[in-house]
UniProtKB/TrEMBL annotation:
Record's catalysed reaction(s): L-glutamate 5-semialdehyde + NAD(+) + H2O = L-glutamate + NADH + 2 H(+)
GO molecular function: L-glutamate gamma-semialdehyde dehydrogenase activity; proline dehydrogenase activity
Protein name: L-glutamate gamma-semialdehyde dehydrogenase
Active-site residues, record numbering mapped to chain: 293
GO CC entries: cytoplasmic side of plasma membrane
């Protein structure tokens, strides 16, 4: 067998295409949208390379047009979860033994497929299934996932290259074994890139996977699986099942071979999972790796020296892109009294120009929220705000689910800095503003830091460098991704490794070496070239 020390292609961020009128990519995307809408599909589970169907067919619809059927997915039960674990365990040794360069090659090929022949298809599936506009789909399903794949391959090689020193006469080596057992990838609805990254990052390091996506992301998960198969991911390495969360959890968290969970989703679900794993700890062969990136109550903190228009733009984009359904979305802002009138005028003017509607109309900046449960939850927060004497609705406040789950981008102004919507994650297009005395900057930051249990993303705006430095220090633990004079969303793989602490997760930074290290179990090997043949120390010879 030929071998060598291989370098992988140097990763660079995938360019974001413009989808401008008349562009080739726009035409291709429009064609992919039309083709997807025209044909109902039957989406199987994938277990050990088998396409598994059941009698339990569940409809999939665009959130912005809930009467249209895109197709059905086949819902499984606990027996399918058990079969997926068996398939992952059966595929394990061949996959773990495969030369790393072949694993790298498979995932680099997946990146190329997504950048080229599958780009329009994965973006169209994300636009229809998750109601993302063309730009939001492009930065997620195409670019971010391509970046995850390419950069993770590079980080994998850097991990393998890290080796210890060796004293004369010995050779020390560290090998990076995959975890014993299987890895459970449990993924959210809101980013196709995250749904793809959670199973592939662990698989890249030699693990085999049971993947359970959110029901509302299955339509695009099916395209990802098609890409994985075409890229050459062997049967059984990534097994995709559609079951309820508790059904998956009951089987997986009771299994002796459960090796780790790669989770992204809400804080409540993650805390429940952690507790269950703790209660079952004696059942497992190893201590399972627990990686979870969860919710946020992301902030924009504004100093009196800021530019009001820059702040307003950060609010308009940071709070409302993808209907505020980003874990990083700005959902509370602290505005100094000297700037409020201007910031308010600019934000209200921006919102008046937002167009809301289906993703197939490329002129729409705002689309629908993901499903009825989410719509009702957001509407209840808005109703609560309307009824509260402490809150004024500055913009938006209306909603309508007759055709799709549409919620107007909504700006609330509160007199109470601890009002519910300043503390709780809403996960929708709602931001709450608290206007503070412009001379109370330090005290307001202390208030911000103690208002919510989360610490995911946050921004400081200011032209006064002393104020920016003060905020950077005071808010050190308030966000895992901290932005200066920028909105708190839009982290790019390889540039701003992403994740938060406190209630927001284990901060293992998706798309970084830190994350990949969680999916290996290092073994240190010491080899002695000429072993001693006498147990005595030299000084034991003579008195
Ligand atoms: N920090 C991050 O990087 C990040 C990124 C994206 C989303 N998020 C968070 O994800 C949430 C939105 O996504 P979501 O609505 O899909 O989250 P969710 O927690 O509802 O679901 C996530 C996954 O867990 C499953 N699940 C739900 N209940 C379960 C249970 N009891 N047992 C086992 N599995 C269960 C779901 O089916 C889904 O696959 C928000 O809170 C958001 O902040 C965080
Ligand atoms: N990484 C994304 C958020 C992912 C969570 O939903 C961002 O930085 O905006």
């Amino acid at each position: 067998m030929a071998t060598g020390f291989f370098n992988v292609p140097t990763p660079t961020n995938e360019p974001v295409l413009s989808y401008a009128p008349g562009s080739k990519e726009r035409e291709e995307l429009k064609a992919a949208l039309a083709a997807a809408r025209a044909k109902e599909i039957d989406v199987p589970m994938y277990i050990g390379g088998e396409r598994v169907t059941t009698d339990n067919k569940k409809p999939m619809s665009p959130p912005h047009d809930h009467q249209h059927i895109l197709g059905h997915y086949n819902e499984g039960g606990s027996e399918h979860v058990a079969a997926a674990i068996d398939a992952a365990m059966a595929a394990k040794s061949a996959w773990a033994d495969l030369g790393w360069e072949h694993r790298a090659s498979i995932f680099l090929k997946a990146a190329e497929l997504l950048a080229g022949p599958y780009r329009a298809k994965i973006n169209a599936a994300t636009m229809l299934g998750q109601s993302k506009n063309a730009f939001q789909a492009e930065i997620d399903a195409a670019c971010e996932f391509i970046d995850f794949l390419r950069f993770n391959v590079q980080y994998m090689t850097e991990i393998y290259a890290q080796q210890p020193n060796s004293a004369p006469g010995i050779w020390n080596r560290v090998e990076q074994r995959p975890l014993e057992g299987f890895v459970f990838a449990l993924t959210p609805f809101n980013f196709t890139a995250i749904a793809g990254n959670l199973p592939t990052s662990a698989a890249m390091m030699g693990n085999t996977i049971v993947w359970k996506p959110s029901n509302t992301q299955i339509y695009s998960a099916n395209v990802l699986m098609e890409v994985f198969q075409e890229a050459g991911v062997p049967d059984g390495v990534i097994n995709l099942v559609y079951v309820s969360g508790p059904t998956a959890g009951d089987v997986i968290f009771n299994h002796a071979d459960f090796g780790g969970i790669h989770f992204t989703g809400s804080t409540g679900v993650f805390q429940h999972i952690w507790k269950t794993i703790g209660e079952n700890i004696y059942k497992y062969k190893s201590y399972p790796r627990i990686v979870g990136e969860t919710g946020g109550k992301d902030f924009i903190m504004v100093h009196k020296s800021s530019d009001a228009k820059e702040v307003a733009t950060a609010i308009s984009r940071g709070a409302f892109e993808y209907q505020g359904q980003k874990c990083s979305a700005a959902s509370r802002a602290y505005i100094p009294s000297n700037l409020w009138d201007d910031v308010k005028d600019y934000v209200v003017a921006d919102l008046a120009t937002f167009k809301m509607g289906p993703t197939e109309d490329f002129g729409n900046f705002i689309n629908a929220v993901i499903d009825e449960k989410s719509f009702d939850n957001i509407a209840a927060y808005i109703d609560g705000a309307k009824a509260s004497p402490d809150v004024e609705v500055i913009a938006g406040g209306n909603y309508d689910k007759s055709k799709g789950y549409f919620v107007e981008p909504t700006v609330l102004l509160t007199k109470d800095p601890k009002y519910t919507t300043m503390c709780e994650e809403i996960f929708g297009p709602v931001i709450t503003i608290y206007v503070y005395d412009e001379n109370e900057f330090e005290a307001t930051m202390e208030l911000l830091d103690s208002t919510s249990p989360y610490a995911l993303t946050g921004s400081i705006f200011g032209r006064d460098r002393y104020a920016v430095e003060q905020a950077t220090k005071t808010l050190q633990n308030a966000a895992g991704n901290f932005y200066i004079n920028d909105k708190p969303t839009g982290a790019v793989v390889g540039q701003q490794p992403f994740g938060g602490a406190r209630g927001s997760g284990t901060n293992d930074k998706a798309g970084s070496m830190i994350n990949l290290l969680r999916w290996v179990s290092p073994r240190t090997i010491k080899e002695t070239f000429v072993p001693p043949k006498d147990y005595r120390y030299p000084f034991l010879g003579e008195d």
